[in-house]
Amino acid sequence: MVKKAIAVTLLFLAAYSLFVYFFENKISRTGQNQYDRNIVKGEEYLYEKGQKADVLILGSSLASRLIMDSLPANYYNLAMGGMGIYDGISLLSKSSRKPKVVLIEMNVALRDLNKDLEKDLYHPVFYSVKKYIPILRKKYQPVPVLKALFRDRSGMKPDAGLYQLPKHLFDREVAGVIERYSVPPKPELTKRKFDELSRDVQMIRKSGIQVIFFEMPIHQDARNLIEPQTTRTAFYKYFPKSEFKYIDNPQDVYQTSDGIHLGPDDALRYTIYLRNKIKQLI
Fold first, then answer.
1. What is the SS3 assignment for 213?
2. Of 28, 78, 137, 184, which one has the greatest count of Cβ atoms within 10 A?
3. Which pTM value belongs to this model?
4. Residues 108, 112, 117, 123: is their CA dihedral positive or negative?
5. Does pLDDT of 3 surpass 90?
6. 158 pLDDT above the threshold of 60
7. Has residue 258 got a pLDDT over 50?
8. Structural domain range at position 29
9. Which pLDDT belongs to residue 109?
């Protein structure tokens, strides 16, 4: 009985492995929540198409809204919701293959590394095993895969964050953003994070990787408040424009879904802007 159960289990695993092998390109957006989606994105970078990227994008949920279908196939977006640039830098530092260019989002430079994500991605047992057995990755768990395939066939929206909020809720979100961004960051925090980022950027450049800084557009009433202005000034101090390349924040007004995240149409508009600016720089 035990042998039969083991045999059936192995047969199922073999069949499912073949399914994943043949349909890998059709399986997408299987994360059940924001943290799962970050794990999936990290694993894709470490084991799959991220290892073919010549241009790597690091950032937060702001940059995760970029429309990757409008960027060349050799771009990979490692920007993650609720995370920041240090999470992407950590993955980059441990990756065997290095991109030619790294785009670093400026908006959340003061956000710390998420150590839980790093632990989950670099589990001492599963990190190496997942390289050779894809079905162990978060992306290919059977139930989320079935849900994702059903969602794609039914045409359901993949991201609830892309829905437009009712006006009263949108106004409340914008007011909250303005309140938060009107508070100056603590000087000791700014110094600590930019000292850290300076070391990281130096390490990246020593690997022969070109670094480009970019800033995601936010609500027009918040973009020049004290918090983003302080962060912007720190970038120009630590990484002067005479030595580093920047994609300046466009002066056009961009519509957001909640004050900081671009809506679908403006995410596409900014993606095209970003793509054209990158072409000029590299």
1. strand
2. 78
3. 0.88
4. positive
5. no
6. no
7. yes
8. 2-281
9. 96
Nearest to 61 by CA among 40, 37, 44: 37
Domains of the chain: total? 1
Report which of 100, 95, 96 is spatially closest to residue 74, judged by C-alpha positions: 100
Q: What are phi and psi of 265, to 5 degrees?
A: -65, -45
pLDDT tens digits, 40-50 = 899 989 988 87
Residue 101: strand, helix, or coil: strand
Phi and psi torsions of 77, nearest 5°? -100, 105
**Does residue 255 contact residue 262 with C-beta atoms inside 8 Å?**
yes
Residue 148: the pLDDT is: 67
**Nearest to residue 71, comparing CAs of 58, 53, 95?**
53
User: Which amino acid appears at position 264 of this protein?
Assistant: P
| Distance, CA of 89 to chain centre | 11
Residues with Cβ within 8 Å of 220's Cβ and at least 6 positions away in sequence, in order, are 253, 254
> One-letter amino acid identity for 210?
Q
**Residue with the two structure tokens 């490692």:** 78
Phi, psi of 88 (to 5 degrees): -65, -40
Q: In what order do the strands lie in the sheet with 55-58?
A: 75-77, 55-58, 101-105, 210-214, 245-247
Question: Which tokens sit at 158?
Answer: 């993949």
Q: Which residues, at least 6 apart from 206, have a Cβ–Cβ distance to it below 8 Å?
A: none
Of 134, 237, 163, nearest in space to 193 by CA: 237
Residue 28 confidence (pLDDT): 67
Can you read off the two tokens belonging to residue 280? 């000029």
Q: Encoding tokens for residue 187?
A: 């000087």
Q: Residue 211's domain is classified under what CATH number?
A: 3.40.50.1110
